[in-house]
Design goal:
This protein has about 475 residues and is of the alpha+beta class. The protein has one domain: Outer membrane efflux proteins (OEP), CATH 1.20.1600.10. It is built from 14 helices and six strands. It has helices at about 1-15, 30-35, 45-50, 65-75, 80-100, 135-200, 210-245, 245-250, 260-265, 275-285, 285-305, 340-405, 410-445, 460-465; strands at about 65, 105-110, 120-130, 255, 310-320, 325-335. Strand 5 (about 310-320) and strand 6 (about 325-335) form a beta hairpin. Helix 4 (about 65-75) packs across helix 6 (about 135-200), helix 5 (about 80-100) packs antiparallel against helix 6 (about 135-200) and helix 12 runs antiparallel to helix 13. The longest helix has about 70 residues, at about 135-200.
Length: about 475
């Protein structure tokens, strides 16, 4: 009875440390208010920037560059918190995997009314002490460590995806603003041309057909301008969402002219195709995650092989059986040695082969993606060079036309058409710039490394993304 009493008291003392369940409901209104109240001049965000290399003199930011906006997305965008939460869960799983199997305590009490017994009481107490064999615990720890490392890499991968998405949204937003300004110039020139044709038709120097053609072209220009203007709020909302801010908060931020292809190309070394492909293979976070998944599959094979050897359970016990004191020592184990766990081992090996096939397919897709992005960038460079030449030629032609107009060699209509051609050349050059920076972003996304080494790279992203806000 004393042994049972001591066991019950011990269990009661242990129970004092139990945790109570505390409900944690999701308050949707609070979350919505939090999202709508985010501002780029938030004190915590300013501290975040200081902690990552910004000086106090740079804050608050007045002119937002690409890197500034990437930091903003990493701090405010809630999608990164999902990967962080999954990583913390994987870290907790490492501790769980390292836990030793706990002993099992069992006991029972009996009572009899028989007068033949020297005592009417009987009680038994035994403890099962599990012993894992063949290094199974260390293999589980190894698997949990690879899963945790994969989860950590997924944070950096999510951060890189946020970077790519934010830069793409910025380029779309800024280019559309430029396009609206150029379309307004085009519309003004076409209105000027229509007005000239109207005056000429009134004096019989022009036909109604010429005026109709000019009016149709004006309508097309007006329709394009209206489409770009309608698209601007959509692009604003998309950019705000990428940055984790509300459109109202974005409205107070002054974004610099980030679409300058020549400047970006000048600051980015011209890497050979082989070097770019090599950088992709060594930098791609999804490839590194796939290697961690393969390591988990490898650990699974090792664990199933280790399970050929049965775990043991020692069972020391004590019984007081109606006056008789009995000590016992038992031993048990699952007889896996009979089947040698062949089916589970075969299954684990097949799963490992699946990971190998998936890695090979992923690497092939990465190489194809990099080659395609690099080829598109080379094509965009040729287009930019051509459009730059055409714009320079058109600007020179417009200057000559201005001189001719002053000399009376041409009329106002010819001058308006020359200026309109220059506006069209500016539109084409602006679009070529936009295509260049977009393709650079796509190539950087393909290799998951910036072409300009001064920008935020993978090491910075891994450090930034794993830190708390």
């Amino acid at each position: 009875m004393k042994v049972i009493l001591i066991s019950v008291i011990s269990l009661s003392l242990v129970a004092c440390g139990f945790q109570d369940y505390i409900a944690k409901p999701i308050d949707t209104k609070t979350i919505a208010d939090k999202i709508n109240n985010r501002r780029a001049n938030d004190t915590q965000f300013q501290e975040y920037l200081v902690n990552h290399g910004y000086s106090a003199a740079q804050l608050p930011i007045q002119q937002w560059t690409l890197d500034d906006l990437v930091y903003c997305a990493l701090f405010f965008n809630p999608n990164l918190n999902i990967a962080r939460a999954q990583w913390r869960s994987a870290e907790a799983a490492k501790l769980t995997a390292a836990e030793m199997r706990l002993p099992t305590l069992s006991g029972n009490y009996e009572n009899t009314d028989s007068n033949e017994s020297s005592t009417p009481h009987a009680y038994k107490l035994s403890i099962d002490l599990p012993i894992e064999t063949a290094n199974k615990r260390n293999i589980r720890i190894e698997s949990a460590q690879h899963l945790a490392e994969a989860a950590k890499l997924k944070i950096a991968l999510s951060a890189w995806q946020l970077r790519t998405e934010a830069i793409r949204a910025v380029y779309d937003y800024v280019y559309n603003q430029k396009l609206i300004a150029l379309l307004e110039k085009e519309q003004a020139k076409r209105q000027e041309i229509v007005a000239i044709f109207q005056k000429r038709m009134q004096v019989g120097e022009s036909s109604n057909l010429e005026l109709s053609k000019a009016n149709l072209l004006l309508q097309d220009a007006s329709a394009n301008l209206e489409a770009a203007q309608r698209n601007q709020p959509v692009l604003t909302a998309r950019l705000a969402n990428s940055l984790g801010l509300s459109p109202a908060a974005l409205a107070s931020m002054q974004i610099t002219d980030v679409i300058n292809a020549e400047k970006i190309l000048a600051s980015a070394p011209n890497h050979p195709s082989e070097e770019i492909q090599s950088r992709a293979i060594f930098n791609r976070l999804d490839l590194r995650i796939a290697l961690e998944r393969y390591a988990v599959a490898e650990a699974k094979v090792k664990l199933e092989i280790a399970r050929q050897y049965p775990d043991l359970v020692f069972k020391p016990g004590y019984a007081y059986d109606f006056g008789e004191k009995i000590w016992s020592l038992g031993l048990s184990g699952l007889m896996t040695i009979l089947t040698k766990n062949k089916l589970a081992i075969a299954e684990a090996k097949q799963l490992r082969e699946v990971e190998v096939a998936q890695f090979e397919a992923l690497q092939a897709n990465v190489i194809s993606e990099v080659n395609t992005a690099n080829a598109k960038l080379a094509q965009a460079k040729q287009i930019l060079d051509n459009q730059k030449t055409l714009l320079a030629q058109q600007q020179a032609s417009t200057k000559r036309m201005v001189s001719k107009l002053r000399a009376g060699e041409i009329d106002r209509l010819e001058m308006s058409y020359a200026q309109l051609e220059e506006v069209v050349a500016e539109k084409n050059y602006a679009r070529a710039n936009y295509q260049i920076v977009t393709q650079i972003n796509e190539l950087e996304s393909a290799i998951q490394a910036p072409l300009n080494d001064t920008q935020i790279n993978n090491d910075k992203l891994e450090n930034l993304s794993s830190s708390n806000q």
